[in-house]
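Anyone else keep sequences and structure tokens together like this?

Example one:
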Amino acid sequence: MLKKTKTMRLFIFFLLSSYTLLGQATDIIAPGIKKIVIDPGHGGHDPGCHGAHSQEKHVALAVGLKLGEYIQQKYPEIEVIYTRDKDVFVTLDERAKIANRNNADLFICIHANAAGAKAHGAETYVLGLHRTESQQKIAERENSAILLEEDSEEKYKDFDMSPDAIIARQLQLSFYLDQSINFASKIQHHFKRLGRVDRGVRQAGFLVLYKTTMPSVLIETGFLTNREEENFLSKPANQQLMANCIFKAFQEYKAEIEGVNVLITDAKEVENIKIDTTFTETREVKDKVQSNPDKELKERTLKIEETDIYFKVQIETSNDRVSLSDSRFDGLKVEEYKQDGLYKYTVGSFKNDVASASNLRKELSTKGYKSAFVVAFKNGERIKITTALEEVQGYR
């Protein structure tokens, strides 16, 4: 294990290097999505968890392959890479290396869960500190795959998953964490639309998420230890439906970070499966209802008049609304915006000036807001930082 002093040195290094990271953001976060790594969990001599008649490795592979197929059908320009496309064992370390070597823009890890016979529902994880004992157990169970690797004791002897190390890693990957949460929220939204129990977006210290350097999520599709969920997840038609939920979330995520509007559709294969398709219909009706002359006039006016980018520093994200006068903000003038069902809080507003926003972030970091990072807005809507930097180059 790494010494605590070494962890703190890493922690300080990440803080000091964050300004440099921001200045190189166009290199860190590639514009658009060109490569995706899909990681079906377990495999080979590692079956993962199991139910009465199914194994996690088979469920994960089936869902993962369908997801990749759906993405390639609609987006042939995107390269889909699998950590495994058959029943073979791949180490946790190698799974992350595959994503990092290929400079993937997104890492999607697929699993199934295990607990008591009554536990049920789907949940999606991002890297972070677990908040409950059950979350810790899930991470420990998935991380325990290293015990099946050859020379695992030597390979991971210096690997540190302590709270200090995870926090430091979160800081290093702060540009990606918010995107990971965003994507995870969309996945859960579509699971819920399908009728699955929504266990929410959660955080835990998964080794494979710790080692990847791009937006990354780990999806627990359901509990094989629950007879009803095992029966659901073991059927090919339902595996297609689960893959389709992730696929629709991906369409939304891709469109959002690339700043385009697209019609979110089911995968072609899924169109023939008899399911509740109210989501697509409801979305189309909602768009029609919201379309009105006043809104259209406002949008046209914004496009004509508001071409500036405003850089702000985000200091807080919460599942619940927080008072702007809350003591945690220490008297700062804070603004609130809502995105993907989460309440987010920013400080400062710098017109076409990312350097001033970055300086404020550094100042806030010294005051205790260690995970603060710079975000960008246009026409009152948050946009990806790379788009913002490209658009303001004429002002710098």
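And example two:
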Amino acid sequence: MINRSTGYFCLSLLLILGVPAVRAQQPETDPAAAQAPTQQAPTQQAPTQPAPAPQNPLTQQEPSTPSAPIVQAPPELPKYPDVRLPGEYGFWISINGSDPREQPIFDKGHASTFTQSGYVVMQGHPKAAEGAEIGIALGLHNALRLSYFRDQAQGNFTNGVELVVPGQDFAAGNYLSTSYTLQRYKASFDYLTWPYPVESRRFRLMTLWQFEYMTMKTAFNAPLLPLTDANGNPYIGADGNPISYASQISKSIISPELGIGLREYLTKNFRLELNGTGFAIPHHWTIWEADVTANIRIKQFEVGFGAKAFHFKTSPEQDFFSRATLASPFVSIKWFSQ
């Protein structure tokens, strides 16, 4: 009993005495240093890259290089020469004639202040209405033309009613003479509209752009009325001048004209041609012209024959005006430089 107690006592004593010795052998540490955070040397880190997405080995395919599409240019269309036919190159000079049988009308207008009649049918028939033309080709199939036309006639009649004309008042039953001169000056640009390109085609559709100056001069007289007395002394009028029964007046139209021209070359030396132009402003003036011809080429000359018609009416808003529709056969002779 004593021995077991003595043993427990000794063991307890050893444990009590041995703990301080073990603690004495351990180095003492600074409390402030123990509490300071530990510093580590900075280390260089490689930039992080996203991990590649997992690929399905069953669907993964080799990348293919896109190839450019092969484009083949269409073959060029065959080119045909643009053939120019007579009248489409060089320049030309032409003279022409016609024989209109219609008679122009002279009448009073809305601005007149008298109540008597002013209606006169101009008398006579022209021996011939003549004209001339100069043209030059522009471009491949266009042309510029300058033309002139003149028509004149004179005749006599006895008026059945009192008649008033510019500056004169004729009693009914007077023997009167009339005369007129119609002149026209025209510039025309003939522009190829269809077909284009022409190539070897023989048909032409032209648009005609024209400008015209037309003048109508009318004259009246009473040749049988006496101008002197029995002694040969001239009668004196109210104005103190010798009396005269002659009277004249001119009316004109200055107007653009638009139209269509058709050309058909049946052969190189035979051509059919149809033209129509005109312009009008209501209550002011009206003007139009049309012609159809067949033309035969013989070397550098061309002979044309056919028919033409021309209509005009000067402004009825004035004191007097003139109007006429003239139609007749038509003949022309044309010389070409080439």
